[in-house]
Amino acid sequence: QVQLVESGGGLVQPGGSMRLSCAASGNIETINAMNWYRQPPGKQRELVATITSGGTTNYADSVKGRFTISRDNAKNTAYLQMNAMKPEDTAIYYCNYRVILVHQTVSRNYWGQGTQVTVSS
């Protein structure tokens, strides 16, 4: 199977910056889309950013201009650089990858364990 391990969360002040990482390990042939979701307290999970295998990115309107998603294919790792952070960015952040396993031809979704990001003074 595939395991996604997130790191980089914690407490940051409004206007500050934080970088999240999501490293995948396991029986991976290739990773197609890499995604970051978040779930604010009391709200539904929402898609924050996406990066395709070709490097095309998409962002939620609420984070455009502030967040940047990137990937390191050699390390099977995605990053989410968050700048000019706001209290409304407070949420549990989850990475989500679409993965093709070795000896298989179809992709599967895998999720990280979630990491808490709190923006507060």
Descriptive overview:
The structure is a single chain. The protein has 121 residues and is mostly beta strands. A hairpin with a 6-residue loop joins strand 4 and strand 5. The strands form two sheets. Strands 2, 4, 5, 6, 9, 10 and 11 form a seven-stranded mixed β-sheet that branches. Helices cover 0% and strands 60% of the residues.
Q: Helical segment tally?
A: 0
Count of extended strands = 11
Distance between the termini: 40 Å
Low-confidence stretches: none
Q: So what's the overall shape? A: elongated
Counting helices, strands and paired strands, the structural category is: mainly beta
Instruction: Tell me roughly what share of residues is in helical segments.
Output: under 10%
Strand percentage? over 45%
The succession of helices and strands, N to C, reads: EEEEEEEEEEE
- Mean pLDDT, to the nearest integer, reads 97
